[in-house]
Amino acid sequence: MATRTSPAARSGSSGRTPARNSGGNSSKTPAKSGQRGGSTGRGSSASRQAPPDQLPLPLRVVESAWMGISRLAGAGVRKLGTDVSPEREIRRDGTGFFLLLVALAVATVEWWALRGPVADIIHAGAAGTFGWMAVVLPFMLTTGAIRLFRYPERHRANSRISIGLVIMLLAGAGITHIAGGLPALSDGFDRLWASGGIVGFLVAGPLSAALTVWPVLALLSLLVFISILIITATPFRHIPLRLRALYEHLMGQDLAPDDPEAHDQSYLYGTPKPQKVKKPRKSRREKEAEAAAAQDGFAGDEAFERALLQDEEDEAAAAAAATPAAPAVPPGVRRPTQAELATQKIRRNQGLPVDDGMGADAAEPPTEAISTVPGATEVLNLAAVPPVAPVPSRPVAHTPPAAPIPQRTEQLQLSGDITYTLPPSDFLPPGPPAKERSEANDAVVAALTHTLEQFNVDAKVTGFSRGPTVTRYEIELGEGTKVERVTALSKNIAYAVASSDVRILSPIPGKSAIGIEIPNADKEVVALGDVLRSNSARKTEHPMVMGVGKDVEGGFVVANLAKMPHLLVAGATGAGKSSFVNSMITSILMRSTPDEVRMVMVDPKRVELTAYEGVPHLITPIITNPKKAAEALQWVVREMDTRYDDLANFGFKHIDDFNKAVRNGKVIPPAGSKRVIRAYPYLLVIVDELADLMMVAPRDVEDSIVRITQLARAAGIHLVLATQRPSVDVVTGLIKANVPSRMAFATSSVTDSRVVLDQPGAEKLLGQGDALFLPMGSNKPIRVQGAWVTESEIHRVVEHVKGQLKAVYREDVAVTAPKKQIDDDIGDDLDVLLQATELVVTTQFGSTSMLQRKLRVGFAKAGRLMDLLESRGVVGPSEGSKARDVLVKPDDLAATLAAISGGDAPAPSGGAGAAALADNANANHGFDPTGPVDLVAADLDGRPQAEDYHDGAEDPDGSEDAWNLTGR
Ligand SMILES: Nc1ncnc2c1ncn2[C@@H]1O[C@H](COP(=O)(O)OP(=O)(O)OP(=O)(O)O)[C@@H](O)[C@H]1O
User: Fold this and answer.
1) How much of the chain, in percent, has pLDDT values that exceed 90?
2) Which of 248, 281, 314 is the last residue of a domain?
3) Residue 892, pLDDT above cutoff 90
4) Is 743 helix (H, G, I), strand (E, B) or coil?
5) Is the whole model's pTM more than 0.90, yes or no?
6) Is 237 inside any structural domain?
7) What residues does 466 pair with on adjacent strands?
8) Which domain holds residue 851?
9) Is 571 annotated as a binding residue?
10) Does residue 584 or residue 3 have the better pLDDT?
11) Which of 233, 244, 467, 686 could serve as a FRET partner for 652 with CA atoms 20 to 30 Å apart?
């Protein structure tokens, strides 16, 4: 082992340099030549063989003119409909433009019967070959041209469409040949041209001779039908679904983009139809980046990225809904313009007098009295409450589209050539329809109004928005009324509405209004299926998107786990954590293939996650032993380091960029390496009870979590830590500082709420899925009712997933490295001592304060580490305030680390040197379904075969080992 490692390690830099060069060259050169030689990918390879400078001048001019016009035409076509922007080097504008020209020429001749010597040649070519089908030829050619302009990178889809079109053309020519009376060659070319052309003759002639006409006609019609299915990528069983979608589209009933229920509700409640918010124009760069992300399905970091996904249409509708219904305007009074209304609002907010031009009374809401609902007042015992003006409820603009999500079928790569179909969306049935207002709401409005009047507070309930578990009532203050006058009434309000769980928000974020959240007497379940079918979830295909639940305004909350990038879930027992974790895992299983997401599940409680045992997304069996879980976290750290090595070696900053380049064939292994580079799946690590892990190995677990959370984002590794004990000894300061997104379910005390959210609030939640969600980057938590998924739904999804693919477990995840002989004085500090050694030796700077800073340890610990380093001969004795001499040279680092750790050298933590590569290699031997393993060479049971790994003997200069010893 050592002999194999050492040459690789020593020659690591030299071994990797040529590799990087070759990779870099091969990935960069074509890009450049593609740009220079024009946008045609194939054209560019031709121009590489014969550079344009060597072409004669006239030809160069023609080539440039052709490419210039092609690019212009391409740019125009790309701008049609949804703007797309394929990468420059893969564009095929030249070919697309050629097809377009041919289409135009054929159309001019066949559609408008243009005649002349050139037109005759075109007619002979088109009608002579395909007969009557020459009339549809321009459509087909234009389709091909548009595909090449807009989606040149979608090779498989383009080939599929081409095959479909060719089958259609052949069968169509055959049919027209039969329709033209089966002319023979002896009947002359004119008759052939007026029927199916020479192709029709060749297709239908022999067939009709062998069979009779009618069976051939049926066969050819069937072929035309099949060609349509091929072109539209419609499997047989999806035909009814597609026909329904087409019908709805033609009838203008598309549910997804334009929800009719929202309109109905606007009509019912007099709310203005939500207006489309004009989006700011995007720069070309932004558009290109978005298009690239869309092509890839998902991309790396974005500016102002949010973990929370919200549909822009939903937001616009919600914003429109949040504007109170316009009061009735008396005849003869001018309604203020939008600009005037905005000015008035600002002046009102600033406490300045407002001239609304309608007289003081005109601003009052309509005074039509409603009779308070007798049943509801009885419930709240409010017989004495006087009638109040009607209060508009905010229409819920977030009803999920009823149409199922089209089922996605993928060809898996990591798991061999397996076609994997995501579970159909009807596995998660819709929940009960959301209510917009109920009698209980009207009763609460009456109670609130009465309370405000009773205490002479100049404030009004102006509206409410009903969520599944709580309703938020909005109160607007009269001029000169202090916010505190309402907040001071919290106990009286609680008394009036007979509920102790009243939460006051002052103000509601983004509004000049006070919010009072009061639990609904009639709660509603939020079905996970509805959340996953919402517009926000449908808009993205990112595999790490999960359905969170519904907010207080009834809007669906969907979040991207990859952007969080790590999540802490906490709450008292029974508050709904496990249900949330179940929704999260089910969302992933519903939306992602095992190629896209792999999971590590840690379930010390042993019962919560057993339903998922055996799903192919798992990398290791569900871990129930806390000690093994701690080791698994260390494996995740190693996996992260390996991914980082790949990122560094191939020059990428984020795993999404790396994966995108791999899919585009731009990541090329070094010459001579047998490694097959594959995209890395996201790795989701779910710990269902962090407290159990922290009890057995607090330091190791904390170290691993901190290291993963600090770095793993770019490596596509994300942590979800759930605990019912959010105390400072479980969720330590370090863990908290590195886990930016929080989901707080009901906690038992305000202290626990502060640990989770850094603010009070969670102690007032109602339990059973009621939660405060604080995604990374937002400072105000959102109140949500968690999505709910039943056990039978989980069972169906799991059975579907398991039925397609067996889990292939990695064997090294929970395997402990053999215990090494560690000196007593080092004790538990081995890891940090090794880091200190690496730091001091690589920087050649023996300073205690540097250790404090870099390793984030206290002065006493840094001093102790320095003493240990002195006792091992790494640094010299203390020289007062000066840094100590470093006695070990960087070349001897590996040996020194090995000596300290009492065995073979462990991986220097952040080291990017050759030793690090080689050492990681030692740590990672084994089959790796998460990584780019050549599955061709691996057993299906996950064991590597001999040819997976190279023998250093085959590769005298060792350069190959520097790559292949990473076990990939
Ligand atoms: N989103 C939800 N919608 C409706 N009911 C829910 C929801 N979440 C939880 N509940 C209810 O609360 C009960 C307890 O939830 P859950 O088991 O998830 O709590 P927990 O916090 O994981 O508790 P423990 O820590 O004891 O396992 C569930 O059985 C269910 O009845």
Assistant:
1) 11
2) 248
3) no
4) strand
5) no
6) yes
7) 471
8) 827-964
9) yes
10) 584
11) 686
Lowest-pLDDT choice from 17-31, 148-162, 455-469, 764-778: 17-31
Higher pLDDT residue, 958 or 421? 421
**Does ligand 1 have an atom closer than 6 angstroms to the CB of 751?**
no
In this structure, the answer to whether residues 847 and 705 fall within a common structural domain is: no
Q: Ligand 1, from 579, 584, 585, 606: best to mutate by most atoms within 8 Å of Cβ?
A: 579
593 Cβ closer than 6 Å to some ligand 1 atom = no
Residue 278 lies in a domain: no
* Angstrom distances, CA of residue 68 to CA of 10, 288, 559, 711: 51, 20, 44, 45
Q: Which two tokens stand for residue 754?
A: 């502060």
The mean per-residue pLDDT over the stretch 754-777 comes to: 89
Query: ipTM more than 0.90?
Result: yes
Residues 207, 79, single domain; the answer is: yes
How many residues are given for the chain? 968
Residues 874 and 761 in one domain: no
**DSSP 8-state assignment for residue 724:** S
Position 244 in a domain: yes
The pLDDT assigned to 935 comes to 27
Residue 728 pLDDT level (bands cut at 50, 70, 90): confident
Known binding residue 481? Answer is no
Q: Which of 580, 745, 768 to mutate to test the pocket of ligand 1 (most atoms within 8 A of CB)?
A: 768
Residue 577 among known ligand-binding residues: yes
Check pLDDT > 90 for residue 463: no
Of the two residues 606 and 394, the one the predictor is more confident about is: 606
The domain that holds 920 is classified in CATH as 1.10.10.10
The answer to whether residues 21 and 651 touch, using CB atoms and an 8 Å cutoff, is no
Place of tokens 């009712």: 785
Tally the domains of the chain. 4
Residue 369 shares a structural domain with residue 480: yes
Name, in order, each residue with C-beta under 8 angstroms of 605's C-beta and a sequence gap of 6 or more: 688, 689, 692
Check whether residue 735 and residue 610 sit in a common domain: yes
Statement to judge: residues 735 and 880 lie in one domain: no
* Cα distances (Å, whole numbers) of residue 42 to 53, 63, 95, 163, 645: 18, 14, 9, 20, 33
Is the C-beta atom of 604 inside 6 A of ligand 1? no
Residue 27 vs residue 793, higher pLDDT: 793
Query: Does residue 918 lie in a domain region?
Result: yes
What's 634's domain CATH number? 3.40.50.300
Point out the ligand 1 atom lying closest to the alpha carbon of residue 724: 25
Q: Is the distance from CB of 754 to CB of 769 less than 8 angstroms?
A: no
Q: Is ligand 1 within 6 A of the CB of residue 129? A: no
Task: Indicate if 514 and 557 belong to the same structural domain.
Answer: no
- As a whole number, the mean pLDDT across the chain is 72
Contact yes or no for 75/107 (Cβ under 8 A):
no
CATH number of the domain where residue 508 is located: 3.30.980.40
Asked whether residue 509 carries a pLDDT value surpassing 60, the answer given is yes
572 is in an annotated binding site: yes
* Residues 216 and 162 both lie in one domain: yes
Sign (positive or negative) of CA dihedral 670, 675, 681, 682 = negative
The CA-atom distances, in angstroms, between 499 and each of 492, 503, 520, 759, 799 are 10, 10, 10, 23, 43
**Mean pLDDT, rounded, for 449-457:** 90
Give 877's contacts (C-beta < 8 A, 6+ positions apart). 870, 884
Sheet holding 308-309, edge to edge: 308-309, 556-560, 545-551, 782-786, 770-774, 741-745, 567-570, 717-723, 682-687, 597-602
Q: Is 921 annotated as a binding residue?
A: no
Q: State whether the beta carbon of 575 lies less than 6 angstroms from ligand 1.
A: yes
Q: Is the distance from the beta carbon of residue 550 to the nearest atom of ligand 1 less than 6 Å? A: no
Closest Cα to residue 778, out of 279, 318, 305, 277?
Answer: 305
DSSP class of 884: B
Query: Which of 804, 819, 844 corresponds to the end of one domain?
Result: 804
